[in-house]
Write a structure and sequence with these properties.
This protein has 5 helices and 3 strands, in the order H-E-H-E-H-E-H-H. By secondary structure, the chain is α+β, with helices and mostly antiparallel strands. The protein has a domain of 92 residues: Double Stranded RNA Binding Domain (2-Layer Sandwich), CATH 3.30.160.20. A 3-stranded antiparallel beta sheet has the order 1-2-3, covered by helices on one side. The chain is elongated. It starts with a helix and ends in a 6-residue tail after the last helix. InterPro entries: Pep_chain_release_fac_I, Pep_chain_release_fac_I_sf.
């Protein structure tokens, strides 16, 4: 995966941002929306596409397009830099294959401790019973 080639496939859209800035907010489009079509990407292999579709499923639209937006800064260029960083982090995280878990057995000492604890607890409860009268 080449980051620079993938960045060229991104589509950006500028909108008016909400929040601080006074009248400046009403005039300037500083909010950036990023869209990336995973299935139509020419830079990703089929395996990478499948992995991303599986791992980023909650963040995708019905058409399997990843949408991100940023309006943290008043500057459109700064927001664009922020969103590109965020996108690259998300993609690299989505491409990681989780390691398989190796099932382990409990140690002999842990089994022994558990059984002793059970015996102590049972003995406590026996002591709480009323004494039997013969």
């Amino acid at each position: 995966m080449d980051n620079e080639k993938i960045i060229k496939e991104l589509k950006f859209k500028a909108n008016r941002s909400s929040g601080a800035g006074g009248q400046h907010v009403n005039k300037v489009s500083s909010k950036i929306e990023l869209s990336f079509d995973i299935q139509n990407s020419s830079e990703l292999t089929n395996e990478e596409k499948e992995l991303l579709l599986k791992n980023l499923k909650p963040r995708l639209t019905k058409e399997n397009v990843l949408l991100l937006q940023c309006d943290e800064s008043r500057s459109q260029h700064k927001n664009k830099e922020i969103i590109i960083k965020r996108f690259l982090q998300l993609i690299t995280k989505g491409l990681k294959v989780p390691r398989k878990r190796k099932p382990t057995k409990p140690t002999k000492s842990s089994i022994k401790k558990r059984l002793e604890k059970k015996k102590k607890q049972a003995y406590k409860k026996v002591l709480r019973n009323k004494p039997k009268i013969l």
